[in-house]
Specification:
- The chain has a seven-stranded parallel beta sheet with strand order 6-7-5-9-11-12-13, with helices on both faces. Strands 1, 2, 3, 4, 8 and 10 form a six-stranded antiparallel beta sheet that branches.
- It is globular, with a radius of gyration of 21 Å.
- The chain is built from 13 helices and 15 strands.
- By secondary structure, the protein is of the alpha/beta class.
- The N and C termini lie far apart (60 Å).
- It has a domain at 142-437: Rossmann fold.
- The structure holds calcium ion (CA) (2 copies).
- One calcium ion is lined by residues 190, 225-227, 229, 231-234.
- One calcium ion binds next to loops.
Length: 438
Amino acid sequence: MSKTSFRNLFRKSLQGLLGLTLLASTVACNRFADFPGAQYPQPGQSLNGFSPNPALTRGVRGASRASAQIADQVVVQFHAQPNPVFLQQFAQQNGLQLLRVSPMGTALFRTLNQGMSSAHVMQSLRSNQMVAYSHPNTLYRSRFTVNDPRSSEQYGPAIIGAAKAWDITMGSPNVVIAIIDSGIDLQHPDLRANLVQGYNVLSQGQTPPQDDNGHGTHAAGIAAAVADNALGVAGTCPRCKLMPLKVLDANGSGTGFDVALAVVWAVDNGAQVINMSLGGEESDPTLERAVKYALSRGVSVVVAAGNESTDTPMYPAALPGVISVGSVDSYRSRSSFSNFGNWISVVAPGSSILSTMPMTSVSMTSRDGYRTEYDFMDGTSMAAPMVAGVVGLMRSRYPQLNPDQIKARLEGTAIDLGNAGFDNEFGNGMVDAFRAVM
Ligand SMILES: [Ca+2]
Ligand SMILES: [Ca+2]
């Protein structure tokens, strides 16, 4: 493909992206095509018009396995931001098909040769001077456990002292909590007023980040459902804003590459807090880089510890600087499903948590028997957004604190549970929203 036709394809695909003017698209296109080196294009702008990520349509379902590597996909980090012509040549030379490019100079390829795995490709790329590193793409899943919810009280905010904290702050509309998940029901009457512009990574911005699964809508309500509106539930930071980012498909599966894109998009579009109720056993170097970028830009990152009832570190929860969240029940006992270990930062209520569900049928309502509008759910997926809400309250009250200071304050004000001091079951203890903002 010639440079010109590639450019046109690229420009055409950019025009459909959310919130981008044609001027901005043209600038981004030229910058990209002219090999800008260390230039850092806006997320979304450097996405190109290639086919959707095929890994998303064959995600692993079920509660047992946390993550896996995708055998025929390889992620390649280049030393400089690669241009489209170079990428096409690189793909041809190495028997690959280019799927996506990230603004951080990372490209996602699929192996064309059936017998050639990502491991073979990585071996052959080892001596390539243009390549900083390469790794297989990682499969991540949402972190809820499929239980049969029966409880009828919204005890979570009560036992972490949210009501007392709300006497001090209910959150600032300047504080945006990004929910990197299956999207959010953009029409939900208990969420709508708190939503800001988001991004659908799966459709590369061609469609809104509407939740077709249910998981993201539930997490969003826990963090920041509207309060004082005589409707449904109250989020932990009810006057914070919610940014919907769709990286998980209708089955609740997504890839490390897409999650990394969402993290960068959130940082560059005004989020102060990122919630990821997802993860797996594999660390993903590209997602690791994106999380580092978020922290370096002053964005707090909150991640669910996972529901395997194991002390095996899960990612991205166990990454340095991340607030990794385990789950307790209404008796402040560790939820039976919750992961634990020396990589847990804090715990929060995650058993039988009432929150928002999409207003119309999605896969969790039609397939798993959850109710529309509101329902209970269990998992560290629920504990994490409660903590993200507390971090939202903290950022509202103390805007000058950086992510390390927020994490230290959150851990330092937590209610010690179990053995005295830090312990592997509860980390630094259960978050206390009041003490965190007083
Ligand atoms: Ca409400
Ligand atoms: Ca303890």
